[in-house]
Amino acid sequence: MSLRISRLHATEILDSRARPTLEVSLLTPDGHRAVAGVPSGASTGTREARELRDGDPERFGGQGVSQAVEHVNTTIAEAVVGRSFPHSAALDAILVELDGTENKERLGANAVTGVSMAAARAFALAEAEPLWQWIARQAGTEARLPVPHFNVLNGGAHAANGVDFQEFMIAPLGAPSLPEAVREAAEVYGRLKARLAAAGLDTGLGDEGGFAPALDRPEQVLEHLVAAIEGAGHTAGSEGIAIAIDPAASEFYREGLYHVAGKKLTAEALIDRYEELVDRFPIWSIEDGLAEDDWDGWGRLTSRLGERVQVMGDDIFVTNPGIISEAIGSGIGNSALIKVNQIGTLSETLEAMQLCRNAGYTQMVSHRSGETPDSFIADLAVGTGCGQLKSGAPARGERVAKYNRLIDISEDRPDLAYGLA
């Protein structure tokens, strides 16, 4: 069924970090209204699609998005309103053509992403389908409820503490169902808070709802996590609750060396440290273990640990089909983090995920540090059947919205498989 757009409008709203973002609203002649809230990252890859920010220091400290809003309401609206599109890929192609730059920097990736997301919702409404089911048909995939990965302790760019690694996540791999996975994570989160408080550590929250205590070494964090998992009555490991880490190594890579816990490490030394962590703790996934431009190091990391853990690329891949193809050909990583706003359109995102599936690379759909209550990514994870989603801690409304959406889907469709693809 084709989609005809009768009105397209964007406005400036706030994200979860009190920074501006876009809300895009799309109307169809039959009265359907589809709305999308655009996420924004803090730890970003240099090659990902570019947000458009105003740069006016007198307004939101230069972070305003009024220009991106204007592009939706004029340039994009003039090109799409009154037209019919046979499928979302056709509309996305118009967006890419209108922008005309490699990284969506003319119109702004935030403008393009908002329109692409809203259009996908509108197509699903027109077909009278849940968004996840419509996505599954577009992608040619079997829908599946994903294992949620909860960022329960923050460091790096997401917190004002001394922990260089950015995210420490718990993953209920052994949970029998999606609701049980959420329950287990909430129990561990509560136990971790109590443990940190008993140790005299701060239980304030980082950008993604995880705790941000004054710790210095990743080993300290992992010890607390294992104790919290076991203290909540669960098993630490792949049969119960495993751990995933996102060091976001580009953030602490300077002049060819990795600065971790007061030490300057070569890529080889950092890989040695990861191997020690995997030996000692129930870590099943390492995201952005090395810097985005350290491709030689990535090759060695994949060779050393790729048979034992997910070696997942985020900043290095930026959901870009061209970069992912190059990485696959070079044997870099075995998994990709997926963020729609890194590439700009849903169609390009689905292309990136298809490349990964064809090559046997796993995928994890992800939120950003700056979020809205929009739960689009929950439907994306289910529809593509990738088996993994991360959306922060089991706390803060903009994070919980995604997990609650998964629970809603599981209630509506208890026949859907749950777990890793």
TrEMBL record:
Residues reported in the UniProt entry to bind (2R)-2-phosphoglycerate: Q166, K339, R368, S369, K390
Domain of life per record: Bacteria
Domain named Enolase C-terminal TIM barrel: residues: 142-419
Stated role: Catalyzes the reversible conversion of 2-phosphoglycerate (2-PG) into phosphoenolpyruvate (PEP). It is essential for the degradation of carbohydrates via glycolysis.
Official protein name in the record: Enolase
Cofactor note: Mg(2+) is required for catalysis and for stabilizing the dimer. Binds a second Mg(2+) ion via substrate during catalysis.
GO terms assigned for molecular function: magnesium ion binding; phosphopyruvate hydratase activity
Protein location: Cytoplasm; Secreted; Cell surface
InterPro entries: Enolase, Enolase-like_C_sf, Enolase-like_N, Enolase_C, Enolase_N
Pfam families xref list: Enolase_C (PF00113), Enolase_N (PF03952)
Catalytic activity from the UniProt record: (2R)-2-phosphoglycerate = phosphoenolpyruvate + H2O
Main location: cytoplasm
Organismal lineage: Bacteria, Bacillati, Actinomycetota, Actinomycetes, Kitasatosporales
Coiled-coil spans in chain: none
Region span, Disordered: 33-64
Binding site for substrate: H158, E167, E287, D314, S366, H367, R368, S369, K390
GO-annotated biological processes: glycolytic process
HAMAP family: Enolase
Pathway: Carbohydrate degradation; glycolysis; pyruvate from D-glyceraldehyde 3-phosphate: step 4/5
